[in-house]
Structure formats: C-alpha cells, structure tokens
Request: fold
Amino acid sequence: MIIVMRPDATKKQLNHLVEKIKKLGLKPWISRGVERTIVGIIGEEDIVRTQPLEIFPGVEKVMQILKPYKLASRDFKKEGSVVDVGQDVKVGGKKLVVMAGPCSVEDQKLLISIAKKVKAAGATVLRGGAFKPRTSPYAFQGLGEKGLKYLAEARNATGLRVVTELMDIRDIDLVCKYTDIIQIGARNMQNFNLLREVGKTSKPILLKRGMSSTIKEFLMSAEYILSEGNFKVILCERGIRTFEDATRFTLDINAIPVVKSLSHLPIIVDPSHAAGKWGYVGAAAKAGIAAGADGLIIEVHPNPEEAMSDGEQSLYPENFAKLMKDVEKVAKAVDREI
Ligand code: PEP
Ligand code: MN
Reply:
C-alpha cells in the first residue's frame, strides 16, 4: 500500500501518520523527495484497509496497487503524465518533443552549429554525451566537465533544453549543475543505487530501456526513481537485443502501446541506437510516432565519418530536417503535433 503526502504536508502531519501506522503494528517506509513524500506500508495490509488513512491531515492519496510497480502504474494515475523540462517544453502532451544532437559532445563550435541546425528543423532539446558508456575501455570516453560546459553554452546560444547521460553517482552534482534532463543509459537501467540518487533530485530523468530488459523490469526501474519522490520520469524505448543482427538492436514497437497501457509515464523512441545504421533511422522514427510515442531522440552529426562515436547511425542535419517533415505528417495522422 502506498500513501502519497500532499506537496505542502508538514513534518508534524507526516509524523502523526507514521505513528498511527506503527501503532497498527506495521512498518512504514518513508521516502522524502524534493517535491513529495511517499509512505509505503509493508506487512499486514489488511489492517490498514479498515483504517481511514485518507482523512489524515497532509495525505493526498492512499492506494492499494497489486502490480509490482506502484507509482509508475496506470492504477496509481489514470491520466498520462506530462513532464515539464522547462522553457515550455513538455513531454507527454499533444505536442511531440524531439531531442537531437551528436552522440558525444566533441567540440564547442561544432556543438553550437549542430544545435542551431537541429533547432531550425524543429528539435527543442539538444542531446550530447559528456560521459560515454563505451564497450571498449580504449574508446573515447567523453569530454567530462568540459563537455557539460559546451552543452550549457549551446543552450545559452540557442535556448534549447539539454539532455546528457549520468553514469556515476560521483558525478551527480556536476551533471545537475549543467543539464536540464539527466539521461540514464540502457547499460545503467538496473543500476539501482544510481536510480535512487537521481530520484532524490528534482531534474527530469530520461530513463532508457536496458537492452535485455523486459517491460516489467523497465517499469520497475522507473519505480525506483518515483519511489524517491521524483515524478519527472520520461521513458525511452531504444531497442532490445534479439537474434536479429541486421540492425544494431530490434526496436520494440510493441513496447510503446504496452507501456502506455500499463503506465502513465511518457515514452519516447530512440531510432538511432535501435537501427544502428543511418539509413534505417527514419523508418524507425516514423514507426515510433505512429505507435503513439511522445517524442524522439535522434543522433545528428554534420560529419558522421569523423564522429567520435556512433557516426554510422548519425543523420546529416539535412536528412534530419527532411525526416522532421515526414514525422510531422505521421504526427498529424495520429492526432499529434510537432
Ligand atoms: C546514447 O544515447 O548515446 C546511448 C549510449 O544510448 P543507450 O544507453 O541507449 O545505448
Ligand atoms: Mn550514441
């Protein structure tokens, strides 16, 4: 059972509720987020069902949810969530959100020039990794803080929001200082300590699906973030590993309607990492929007042969602009805007 406190609930009101739960012989589990506090009850929940906990001062909602993911489930919240990432960019509304930019932040001038191009084509969020999860320890690992500074400068120059990956809890303050959205990559989807830590921040979180994770595991990872009080979670389907090796991963289009039916959280599609080859990115992007995704995250580079990472799946800015026009047509067909 889960009790959600009102954002304005006082410490006294929380203590009063906690004391009551303890008196019933149950164990309350308190999670204090920046915006809200959540009280979970573990144990004989039958006793609780007979107690009118809703009328306790400071309580917003009391819920009995049978699914293993509670706060992430549609049972907890019927209407779809809209995650506000600032500057009037909202993920989950009628308007689609497109995030675009290079795989890695490489150079200040280059980043600003890409940012201007993707903005002109209709993107509202600039992507770029400063900390890169690379298969090889000898491959380019990202520019670190220098890369974060370049992202912030590109934001100042264009007004775009920025999203970048956080890989290590030790970098959390640094990344929060520069970014508008924290990306948790596929490889860290089940790094539960990292999920808990970002759950304690008030930043929107872009949670990518692990490449070998089921939808249930994906939602359980979102639950880790929500359970710490951060409700600003955006999910991202980026392809899963199957026997098929013609593409880098297999974009699980089914995941979009399935997640939409199980959860209130918004979900976007990453066609770049799913396809792995630039020629297939457009079809995957359009399919994602047709299936009901709330947006896209796409890799764009003006010189893919020279890109420090993922050049083979990066679109030239011109091709990205063309794709945006096609996406607009698909969006209209499914009653969305771009
Ligand atoms: C990325 O966005 O560059 C990335 C590494 O994505 P993923 O975690 O989905 O592989
Ligand atoms: Mn990449």
